[in-house]
């Protein structure tokens, strides 16, 4: 049984892990399957701040090297580290990295302060197999202070020989304050960046590869991205990119009312015209922003005809003419949307964000029927009355 198949059991990876573990206790015939699956991604579940499972796992893979070779994904290892205290926490982490020599994905825990390459040195045995890394900050036990991933440390780490074949990078919680870098030498395929403050946007250019031609997917989570900054960020990306995801790191759950639609504050403000230079775009996610309009949607579908998924979830549409009142037809024209979306032959999902409630019995029924005929999953949210 493959890992991904088992993960689908029970509706969640952690639950699937526990269910499969219990099943394997029923018969020794399950033992070979259990080993290869449970050891491949051992840190899905959390030890609930108990150190005994954490220490037992390390003893097992150090005493039996074959078990260490089964480990391929260390996603979630940071949660297990929190069950330990003091210096033993990071020493345990380094020992796990040394014992797992066929890793494909690893969480690199970046300590605050000056760059420490001990974790990278511990990964040298897995250089040839390692393809995906996630940089995460660390919570210091004294006062439980959380430190994000300082940009100098992440940039220095990506220049280490242990990560020379890595193709997929995720960097979580980058603070502001780093301004000296010329970009990465890595030839990445996917890049995902999470920023702590609006000022952290200035750090993005330091993580873009010097040769971005191989980059196919870019994701950004930030508290605020304005139109000017969005254009600057997108200018670093190759025109051949196929997936762009921009969303707030801490989204608001507040829903606009019909009366407040015009002045509802969205943290992200920019136009779809910023994305017209990406003809190979297949997946576009722009959540919690002000900017989509019928006119800009038409230009987008003409410039990116391969679009497969579009999400404007929790976003506010702009009116066609600023002088018109906030009526459903002046904010969002159903007929124009149908005409535009019909040009996307590959479209399978679209979330239109917040739309105004119409006077009809069923809101936007023509659009719903047309998308249903095309087997397109259509989503939107109606503003509060």
Uncertain runs: 1-11
The H-and-E topology, N to C, reads as HHHHHHHEHEEEHEEEHEEEEHEHHEHE
What is the helical fraction, as a range of percent?
25-40%
Strand numbers in spatial order across the main sheet:
1-2-5-6-7-8-10-12-13-14
Largest sheet: 10 strands, parallel
**Global mean pLDDT:** 81
N-to-C CA distance = 50 Å
Structural class: alpha/beta
Describe the structure.
- With 385 residues, the chain is of the alpha/beta class.
- The protein has a domain at 252-385.
- The chain is built from 14 helices and 14 strands.
- It has helices spanning 3-7, 13-24, 31-40, 51-63, 65-70, 77-81, 87-99, 118-122, 151-158, 227-235, 294-303, 328-331, 334-341, 365-373, and strands at 105-109, 132-136, 138-140, 145-147, 168-174, 190-195, 217-221, 243-247, 268-269, 283-286, 289-290, 309-311, 349-355, 377-382.
- Strands 1-2-5-6-7-8-10-12-13-14 form a ten-stranded parallel beta sheet, with helices on one face. The chain has a two-stranded antiparallel ribbon with strand order 3-4. A two-stranded parallel ribbon has the order 9-11.
- Helix 10 links the parallel strand 7 (217-221) and strand 8 (243-247).
- Helix 13 (334-341) runs parallel beside helix 14.
